Every structure is written in C-alpha cells, then in structure tokens.
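Example (one chain per record):
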Amino acid sequence: LTVQPGSIVALLGPNGAGKTTLLRVAAGLLRASSGSVTVGEDDVTRRQPYERGKSGLCLIPEGRGVFPHLSVRDNLALQIPPWQKDRSLEPALDAFPILREKLSQHAGRMSGGQQQMLALSRCFLSHPRVVLLDEVSMGLAPRIIDQIFEALGKIAKTGVALLLVEQYVSRALAMADHVYLLNRGSIGFSGTPDGLDEEELMR
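Predicted structure:
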C-alpha cells in the first residue's frame, strides 16, 4: 500500500477488515508481523512511534484525542513536537477559526465537532509528511464534516500524503485520488475511485 505525496488515499472495508490495525502498525503502536513501513526513503519498521513522528508520520486516531481538563491553548501547545522550532499555533487557528475563540476554554466543554477540530490541529502543527486518519467524521454533524474535509483537502495541497479510513464511503471516494479495499487483512482492490463499483462495494 502506497500513499504518494500530496495525494489522498481512501482505505475502505467492512468492520474487522484490519483498517485500524493497519494504521496502528504504520504508526508503530503495533509491531508488524511481516513486511516493512517506509516514510519516503526511510525504513521506519523497527523505530518507536516518536521516532516515526520525527520522520514525518502523524496518526489521528479514532475518537477525540484531547485533554478535556486542559485549555484549548494548552492542548494545541502539546501537539507541537518537542524537536520542532516553530511553536506558533497560527496554522491550526487559521484552519479552524472557531478554536481562536475558545483558546482559554477547557477542551472538554466544547462540542464534539470542535473537539475533533482540536484533535485534527496536530496535522497543521507537527508539519507531517504523512497523516493517518481513522474515522475522523464519526458522530459529527454534516456541516462540521464539511469543514473538516475542506481542511484535509488543504493539507493535501501542501504536499502532505493522507491515508483516510472513513465510514462515509461516498465522501471518501469523492475526495480520494486512490482507493484500497481491505478485507480480512488483504487488499481486495487497488485503483482509482472511478474503477470501483460502489454498489458492489456496499454489498
């Protein structure tokens, strides 16, 4: 499975197919039983998660990964890797302007959509090469999903590679450059969205 710079790749499949497991292996949270993980020319298969982060890998896991009892400002500051010199919060605040209005508020007091925006801010603050996204639209209102997908599109245009696991198949296909269909741990389809029969996919 390959994700090219500046591209959006959708990883689709039924529950239990191995989508989240694949992302966790890529991020280093689970050990690969075989094969390898590379970021650019770097083989990171044996590296720890933080080392993969230094290589440019960024995982946005399922669920709202925020510290609810800390302020929005503190949550954003914690998303900037310690090895990064640029400590500005502006890239995230430009992507999600509502967060600028909430900087002093506890993250846990925000709406679910705003918390997801806060979690996604890491994509803008860690300057990644590859972003792994696991069900970022789960449980959100359509208007919020539109804002999030618009922000993801902007990230891809900067040359960042996006690997997207998404429950809304039609949305994923609409923005993807390439699609992989995963079933029981194996790739069943690899190609462009227009080469995939959506009715067959849903069956």
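Caption: The radius of gyration is 17 Å.
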